[in-house]
Amino acid sequence: MAEHLFFPGEPPRPYLVEYNSSLYDGGDWDQFPVQTGWRLKTGVEMYWPPILMPSKFHSEIECWLYFGMLHYVFGDQLDQSDFLLRREGDPRQYLTTKHLHKYVDNAKEWKRRKLGQRAFDIVKKVCANLDAYAKFCVRKKMVVAIRLVCYVLWNVAVKRDGFQMQTRSVREWFLARNSETTQLCDAGWCSLEAEKCRTTGGGLDTAMYLAQLWRLKANWNQYKSHFGCKKTECVANNIDESDYVTRHVQENCTCSHLQVDVEQLHKILQDGGIPLLMITPCGEDDLGNENFKIEIVRKRIGKQYLAISHVWSDGLGNTEGNSLPHCQLKVLYEQAKTVLTGDEYVPRYSNSPFAPLHTSTGRLAHLLSNQVLRRDDSVLMWIDTLCIPHQPDVRSLAIQRMRELYIDAYRTMILDSEMRNVNASSTTGLELLLRVLYCSGWIRRLWTLQEGLAAKSRLYMLFSDKAVNISTIASELLTKLDGGKLPIMQDSIATYVISVWYSFFQLTVESTSKFERFVNIVVYAFDDRDHSKNGLLASNWFNVATRTTSKAADRPIILAGILNLDLKEILSVKGSDERMRKFYDLVDEIPGDVLFLHGPRFEEDGMRWALKVCQFTNKLSYLSAKAGKITPRGLHITSYPSFLFPSSMVFDLGPDDGYFMNSDGRSALSQWYDDHNIDVDKVKDVCHLKTETPCIFEPNGTYGVIMAHDQTGFPGELNKECAVVSLRTTEDGVHYAQYIGSGTFRAITGGREKQPYDGYMVAVIWGDQQKLDWVVG
Fold it and tell me: Does 429 lie in the same domain as 350?
């Protein structure tokens, strides 16, 4: 099952769905439940709720939703045996989509037979029936198989017949769900990466593509697992520096370390320069092993060098000094030589009005410098282990110049232990990009974020056979997608992976016209295409918050580095809290959505809105680029819908909730309903508030709920992220309030049975939201 996602290749670890039931009889799809005996001619279910459905009908329902769906679209041309598979030595029969391409590849036939509308119609029907039967009547793996075929038929129809509005059921069954993230985690994936796939809009097909890949860990890394990881944090690569081991290329290697001149390293940094490592081969030893000379030299204009971006937990760091084993330096030298002298020219200026001039001049310089580099045995590179000293004051100078270092690097090469086991030559660009985005430790680490952003289009990943410019793969995929050169059943995966790469590494730094046009269509994670500092901060808050580090105090450093703020200011203070406070001092605006994120906040007036750490604690969440202005009295926001109400309109459904009877034999809740003219049987014109931590609503106080998105007139029953505030004063139309906490807010409709049993009820009408002027402190 799901072989179509790898067409024309084969999935490395196929998703097997056993099927030994009958095939579809070819009759009318809508009448099948009546003819089979679980539904009356009037459309009424004979067995309701579905948990009461006799098991003898379960296989019939599966056949109806899977093979019946295919027959509905393709009619008598459907050969159901094309979708069944027997494996050698296995008596069982499985579903397969290996031959699905035969039925969707011919665009002219598809148009002539008007299969698009039939596909839209049946997918809506099948998804609606999955709502009813999936939980009790259809096996979990069979549900996935049905959803996958629905996904293909819908996407092919959209591509050939135009956009069609998805129903709620279609939309929900198409997205990756918790069942898919669980499957990925069971296969050894990190909970955070699985959740990122789901949260960033990954569809079912992307999750199933990833689930069918083998993880290719290094031998020494086989026992490292993601067992302790959470949906918001990966801890697998966190290290204890007290027992850190600098690794050799081979586990049994005992070669000696080569040490750089630390005094020279300090001198260059103290003189305002950036140190580089120069490696020069200098003959062979008695055993025929090549010797190397290493020197620390000052970075100079026109001298091309390679910057190394690596995962520290892979063992290429050193906590004791500025040295590395000889064997590691040999590999670095060989790879640097290859990457620096490669024939591929990557222009630095792709969007400037002078781009053609820069490109032609740069291409000539590239060719000339390659000739020089090939004649010169030495290579220049930068790697933190050898170029960042351990002495605190000088180390601070090196960190302040890292952004400039990576921006000026001729090329940047990523070293990641899992990617070093992937053969790039035998792997598609789509798979390579997905592996980098979801398998590499590099993509999860905090410090590698700014390195990747600075490299832009000059970012190379070292695979087992060669280094590949991964930053251009997304562009190449987009070109193929535009030209119709990708298998149509992989279109949606390619669209997704391009948009994710763009949102991580393109949107965050600059706008490129081709990607910009594309992202306006496919990416909805960001509300605005805002490339101001606030827009970049909105984009990169997610990136920083989902990256992992052993030191929370590093997060403000990376945020500030991305925004090109003065790192000296951040580094001048110690501790995570003080550095984050300093970060807020350095920016005038911040996305107002920070009000709705969960996590510890500062406790003094004027700063209660501010998170102490850029990290998610309960779930992943994108920030819109709606700016809030930072003022001494709090965060000033103007564009968010909100409610303002007296505390008497709030009813606490806590431990001492209103079901306690008073002397009149009536509950406090009933009294509250009467006080606010609420019909206890209909329970409408009431909203439900749930907060991260309990709130105390003081008598005679005035409170506000500020919501994350404008849903005026929305019928409710969907939880909206919100912030709860206590009004302190109103001056010139501005409402000054104290931040209390974050939570969710929704309208209650549907009578007594919909009444919540925890949190707070608020006697406000959903449609009465206002866009007030707030300063939240």
Answer: yes
Q: Are residues 586 and 717 in the same domain?
A: no
The two three-digit tokens of residue 256, written as one number: 């000696």
0.90 surpassed by pTM: no
How many C-beta atoms surround the C-beta of residue 608 within 10 A?
A: 19
Domain shared by 311 and 459, yes or no: yes
Q: Is 412 exposed, middle or buried (0-12, 13-18, 19+ CB in 10 A)?
A: buried
User: pLDDT value at position 527?
Assistant: 38
- The amino acid sitting at 90 is D
Q: Are 137 and 50 in contact (CB under 8 A)?
A: yes
Cα–Cα distance between 542 and 537 in angstroms, integer?
9
Check: CB of residue 357 under 8 Å from CB of residue 429. no
Clarify whether residues 76 and 126 are in a common domain: yes
Q: Give the separation between CA 494 and CA 182, rounded to whole angstroms.
A: 23
Clarify whether residues 463 and 586 are in a common domain: no
In a domain, 372, yes or no: yes
Instruction: Collapse the DSSP code of 9 into the 3-class scheme (helix H, G, I; strand E, B; otherwise coil) and give the result.
Output: coil
- pLDDT at residue number 471: 85
For residue 658, the enclosing domain spans 641-776
Give the Cα separation of 352 and 579 in Å (integer).
Answer: 35
One domain, residues 714 and 608: no
Tracing tokens 């393109």 back to the chain, one arrives at 506
Q: Pairing state of beta strands 459-462 and 467-469?
A: antiparallel
pLDDT score at 528:
41
Instruction: Based on the fold, state whether residues 301 and 447 are members of the same structural domain.
Output: yes
**Element at 701 (helix H, strand E):** none
As beta bridge partners, residue 413 has 308, 460
**Which residue type sits at 108?**
K
Do 597 and 661 share a domain, yes or no? no
Counted domains in the chain:
4
Residues 6+ apart with CB under 8 A from 467: 335, 338, 339, 342, 413, 460, 461
* 246: in domain: no
Q: Which H helix or E strand runs over 134?
A: helix 115-137
* Secondary structure, 3-state, 287-304: CCCEEEEEEEEECCCCCC
Query: What pLDDT score does 690 carry?
Result: 94
The reply to whether 497 falls in a domain is: no
Residue 375: its pLDDT value, please? 54
What is the predicted pLDDT for the residue at 12?
92
* Cis upstream peptide for 8 (omega within 30°): yes
For strand 306-310 and strand 93-95, is the pairing parallel, antiparallel, or unpaired? unpaired
Q: Which of 14, 11, 2 is nearest to 151 (CA)?
A: 2
Instruction: For residue 677, tell me if it sits in a domain.
Output: yes
**Residues for the chain: how many in total?**
777
Cα 464 to Cα 216: distance, rounded to the nearest angstrom: 11
pLDDT tens digits for range 665-715 = 567 888 888 888 887 666 677 899 999 999 999 999 999 999 987 544 444
Between CA 134 and CA 106 the distance in angstroms is 32
Residue in this structure with the two tokens 């997608």, named with its chain if needed = 481
Residues in the chain predicted with pLDDT less than 50, given as ranges, are 349-359, 374, 507-530, 711-715
Render pLDDT for 405-436 as a digit per residue (tens, 0 to 9): 999 999 999 999 999 999 999 999 999 999 99
Nearest CA-CA partner of 718 in 285, 88, 168, 162 = 168
Residue ending a domain, choose from 637, 672, 700: 637
Domain end residue (candidates: 150, 174, 198): 174
